[in-house]
Design a protein that fits this description.
With 427 residues, the protein is of the alpha/beta class. Helices cover 36% and strands 25% of the residues. A hairpin with a 4-residue loop joins strand 9 and strand 10. Helix 1 runs parallel beside helix 4 and helix 2 packs parallel to helix 10. GO terms for molecular function: FAD binding; monooxygenase activity.
Length: 427
């Protein structure tokens, strides 16, 4: 009996699960090295959860390699200074970002949706298959390794030489690999974008405010928009409150941040409520990344599916962009050597990717957690001394050195090998 229209069988070289930052960046990297990828996204369109994201210089190096940095740097200005104010005693710590990347600039905040769209524009039509929820994975032996048989909720079966899970915090692929579920940090974050139609008049600086169990900040996105956040040592309770933007805004202004400077409260008051979210902060234990099963054959994970972390170093999205370039580089080297995607050889490329990324992202997870713990620490004299004298003046500058990381380049496959078969070169 022939299969119905909803029960198809497809064959793909590379299947990427998830059309977030990691998934789209991964697809762009594959295209850059001459490999067609199919992206499966469970939502009906590109997701813009999170409103905005701060990208550090290491992210811009990756975006340069992917060919999309120029689309965003022409719109979003770099931030050259960070000012951290202690709410309790008024002490101020200043951090300069001048010269932190090769353009002589610093971090840049961007709309998350703008980043996703910039990446998606680089992909051929129909690269992303929306409303496609992954339901099961089965590994099958082929050419000395394994390929993935993927089942989608609509009945479609896909045989993939390579499967990359970029499906976020609750990744189906990570679970299949045996990675432990992300754990709750005991903290949560409120994020939003404030709008000032007549202009906000703020300098292009990153302002942070720290208090016992609290940390908040804001940074201009454009001349009329300001991205802000508030993290607190608690997790949201009650679904009705976390899904009601007006209640979230009131909670921040009248409870969480009532003792914060008027400028911060004014920004929260101007929030576009459609951008407001309140979510728990999850992370994966770094030892799970160091010792866990990050790949099996030609199946692996990237982005939040591999290394969910707290946002205290603004490295979640940046690390996901690095993942795309690093994995793209290793797969391209295998392609150059073999002239096609040989599962056994690709499995070796996966292992090299995991080896390169494992310690890097475990360090980011630890650094992010430490940064959040210290900055939202207690009010005892020793904690204040550790935070203001030791952490900010001696440790923090070393931690933020993570922004100087260069994930490398993508090799030019077409000029390096004439053996590529037609199937591998099709876009």
């Amino acid at each position: 009996m022939p299969k119905s229209e909803r029960e198809m069988e497809l064959e793909e070289d590379v299947v990427i699960v998830g059309a977030g930052i990691a998934g789209l960046a991964m697809a762009v990297a594959m295209k850059k090295v001459g490999i067609r990828a199919l992206v499966l996204e469970r939502s009906e369109g590109l997701r813009a959860t999170g409103a905005a994201i701060i990208l550090l210089p290491n992210a811009w190096l990756a975006l340069d390699v992917l060919g999309v940095a120029h689309k965003l740097t022409s719109i979003y200005a770099s931030t050259q200074k960070e000012c951290i104010t202690n709410i309790g005693d008024g002490a101020i710590q200043n951090v300069s970002y001048i010269g932190t990347d090769r353009r002589g600039a610093g971090p840049r905040p961007v709309h998350r949706k703008a980043l996703l769209e910039a990446l998606a524009e680089e992909l051929p039509i129909n690269t992303v298959r929306f409303s496609s929820k992954l339901t099961s994975i089965e590994a099958q032996k082929q050419e000395g390794s394994s390929t993935a048989m993927i089942q989608i909720e609509d009945g479609t079966t896909i045989r993939a030489k390579v499967l990359i899970g970029c499906d976020g915090l609750h990744s189906v692929v990570a679970s299949w690999l045996g990675l432990g579920a992300p754990v709750n940090s005991g903290r949560s974050v409120v994020r939003g974008i404030a709008e000032f139609p007549q202009g906000h008049g703020l300098k292009q600086e990153f302002k942070q405010f720290v208090d016992v169990g609290k940390r908040a900040g804001f940074v201009p996105l454009t001349n009329i928009e300001v991205y802000w956040f508030f993290t607190i040592k608690s997790t949201p309770r009650g679904e009705s409150k976390t899904q009601n933007p007006k209640l979230i805004q009131r909670e921040v202004m009248e409870n969480f941040a009532k003792d914060f400077p008027p400028i911060y409260l004014d920004i929260v008051n101007h929030t576009n409520l459609s951008t407001l979210t309140w979510t728990p902060l999850l992370f994966r234990y770094p030892w799970d990344v160091i010792f866990g099963n990050i790949c099996r054959g030609t199946i692996t994970v990237a982005g939040d599916a591999m290394h969910p972390m707290t946002p205290d170093l603004a490295q979640g999205g940046s690390a996901a962009l690095e993942d795309a370039v690093v994995l793209g580089r290793h797969i391209a080297e295998s392609l150059i050597h073999n002239g096609r995607l040989v599962p056994g050889e690709v499995a070796g490329a996966m292992e090299r990717y995991v080896k390169e990324r494992r310690w890097r992202v475990a360090g980011l997870i630890m650094g992010s957690y430490l940064s959040g713990w210290v900055q939202e620490g207690g009010s005892t004299w020793w904690m204040k001394f550790f935070r203001d004298v030791i952490f900010y003046k001696l440790i923090y500058s070393r931690i933020v050195d993570v922004m100087h990381y260069d994930c490398g380049k993508l090799p030019n496959v077409s000029s390096s090998s004439s053996k590529l078969d037609n199937h591998s070169k099709v876009y």
